[in-house]
Amino acid sequence: MTETKPETRARTFPYFEEQGSEDVVNARMGPEVSPRLREVMTAVVKHLHAAVKEIEPTHDEWMAAIKFLTETGHMCTDWRQEFILLSDTLGVSMLVDSINHRRPNGATENTILGPFYVPDAPRYPHGANICLDGKGEPSIVRGRVVDTEGRPIAGATIDVWQTNEDGFYDVQQKGVQPDFNLRGVFSSDADGRYWFRSVKPRHYPIPDDGPVGKMLGALGRHPNRAAHIHFIVTAPGFDPVITHIFTPDCPYLTEDAVFGVKESLIGDFRKVEDPEAIAESGIGEPFWRVGWDFTLARKAPGTVPDAPII
Amino acid sequence: MTETKPETRARTFPYFEEQGSEDVVNARMGPEVSPRLREVMTAVVKHLHAAVKEIEPTHDEWMAAIKFLTETGHMCTDWRQEFILLSDTLGVSMLVDSINHRRPNGATENTILGPFYVPDAPRYPHGANICLDGKGEPSIVRGRVVDTEGRPIAGATIDVWQTNEDGFYDVQQKGVQPDFNLRGVFSSDADGRYWFRSVKPRHYPIPDDGPVGKMLGALGRHPNRAAHIHFIVTAPGFDPVITHIFTPDCPYLTEDAVFGVKESLIGDFRKVEDPEAIAESGIGEPFWRVGWDFTLARKAPGTVPDAPII
Ligand SMILES: [Cu+2]
Ligand SMILES: [Fe+3]
Ligand SMILES: [Fe+3]
C-alpha cells in the first residue's frame, strides 16, 4: 500500500506568532525594496503592531476602525480632504511641520499652511487695505523682515490671507465676499519694513460634518481654530516661512483644533482708541495696531535656491 | 493716548511642542469621554506620534501617505474592503485574531475567517462529496472533534469551504462553478467522528488591483494565500473555532500574503496510489487522504452560551 506524504516546504519565512509579529511581517519585504521605503514600513508596522498589542481590540472594535477609515476615505473628494483633517486634528500635521522646520534660534517659527491659500493674490503698495468690503474691526499690521542677526531684508515677499469677521475666507463665500477679499502680497522696503491695513480675524471651525467631526465629538473636542492671520514670507537666499500670527484674546487660543498655535506666534494686538491716533491713522474709528517682525534664517549651503515652496 | 493690549487667554491646555506632542493632543480629550475610547485613542496617538518621530517624513512623504489612505478608501465598495486587505497584509488581522483567541494548551488554533464564508451551506451526511463539478484531485478528509481531554464531542457542527483547483471560490465564479460548490456542513457522530470527500485546494491571490496590491509590489511581496480548507467548528458549551488547514506542499506555505499559516494548522495530506485502497475508497483514481482532529476548549464560565459567532 502506497501513501506518500508530500514534503513540507522548506521554511523560508517565519510563521506568524503574536510575540514578534511585527518582525514576521517586516521579514517579508523583498531584497529590492528601496532603503527609504524599507525604513518607513519597518517603523509603520512596528508601531502599528505595538498599538494593537497595547489596545487589544475586540473584533468589533477592529471592525469599527475599518469602518471609520473607510468612511474617512469616502468623504474625500477633490475639494474635501478628510484624511488631512484627521492628520490635523491628531496633531500629525503639526508634528510633520515641526520636524521639517526646526529653525535656528530666533527665526520665526512655522505653522501649518491650511487649505485656504490661494496663489497670485493682488500685489499692493505699502499701507493698502486688503479688506475690500469694509466689514470688521479695522487693523494696521506693521513690522520688519530681518535676518537672524537683526539686519533688514529688503525686497522680501509677504503673502497674507485671513478670514473676515464672520470667520470665513473669501473662497468659502464666493459671491458673498469680493474675490481676493483679505488677501494681498507686499514687499519689504529698503529697511525691511512692511505695513498694510486689514481687519481683526476671527476663529472658525474646520469642516466637521464628516467622520473627523464625529470623532472630535466623541472625544469631547470642538472643531474651532484660534483666530489668525496667515503669512508666507520669502526672500532670495533665506528659508521661506509659512506661519500665522494669532490674536491673543481668541477664546480658542489654547485649544486650536489643529494644534497650530505656538507661543511665539501670538501677536501683539493693541486697541487704539485715542482720538488723535485715530485721526492720524485716517481710519476714522478705533482700530487694532499689530506689530510683527519676521526673522528669516539663511538657507543651508547646498539647498536648491528658491525652489517652489507649495 | 490709549492703547489697550487684550489679555492673553488663560492657558487651559498646553501649546504644541515637538517633544511630548502626543500628550498635547491627548490632553484635549474631554472629561466625558468613555474610558475605553480614552484608552484606545491615547494609545493610537502615542504610537502614531512615535512612528512619525521615528520616520521623520518629508512633506511629500506625508502627502504620499494621505494619498495612499485616500485611494484605499476610494477602492472600498459594498463588495470590496481594501482597508481589511491592508489590515490583512500588514499582519494586523492575524494579530487581532490571535489576541482574541489565546487558547488553552492543546485546543485547535484559530486563523482568520476571510471574505468568502457563506452561511447556510447545504447540510450533508458523512462521506458526502462537496465537490459538485468533479474537477480537481480528489481528497478524503476525516477526523474527530474532541475536547481538550481527548473525549469525543458528539453533534459538533463542521462548516467547511474551500477553493477549487483553479484557486477560486464558488462565489467568485458564479455561473462557472455550481452554487455551493466545495461548501458543506457536517455533524460529528457519537464518537466525535466526521468525514467528507472533496478536492485538494489551491493557493489563490487576494485582490491586488488596488492600492494594497501596489503596496505589496513596492515591498517586493506577492499577493498569494497558501492553499487551505476553511472550517468553522462549533459545539454547545465549547468555544467555536474558526480555522484553516493548510496543504503542506503549497509553494506559498511559508509566505502566505495575510500571515494566516500557523505551524499547528498544516494538514497531514497523503497521496494514496495503492490500487486496493483506491478500489476500497470507491473513488476510482489516486486521491489525497487528510487526517484532521479538532480540539475544542470548554467555554469560560459566564460566557454567553452559543452567541452568534459571525
Ligand atoms: Cu509605537
Ligand atoms: Fe486659516
Ligand atoms: Fe480562503
TrEMBL record, chains A, B:
- Which PROSITE patterns does the record associate with it? INTRADIOL_DIOXYGENAS
Q: Name one GO molecular function term.
A: catechol 1,2-dioxygenase activity
Q: Which residues form the Intradiol ring-cleavage dioxygenases domain?
A: 141-169
Assigned keywords, A-Z? Dioxygenase, Iron, Metal-binding, Oxidoreductase
Keyword Metal-binding in the entry? The reply is yes
| UniProt cross-references to InterPro entries, sorted A to Z | 1_2-HQD/HQD, Catechol_dOase_N, Intradiol_dOase_C, Intradiol_dOase_core, Intradiol_RC_Dioxygenase
The Gene Ontology biological process terms listed for this entry are: catechol-containing compound metabolic process
| Domain of life according to the entry | Bacteria
The reply on keyword Isomerase is no
**Which cofactors go with this protein?**
Fe(3+)
Question: Which CDD domains is this protein grouped with?
Answer: 1_2-HQD (cd03461)
Q: Which family does it belong to?
A: Belongs to the intradiol ring-cleavage dioxygenase family.
What is this protein called in UniProt?
6-chlorohydroxyquinol-1,2-dioxygenase
Q: Which organism is it from?
A: Lichenibacterium ramalinae
The lineage is: Bacteria, Pseudomonadati, Pseudomonadota, Alphaproteobacteria, Hyphomicrobiales
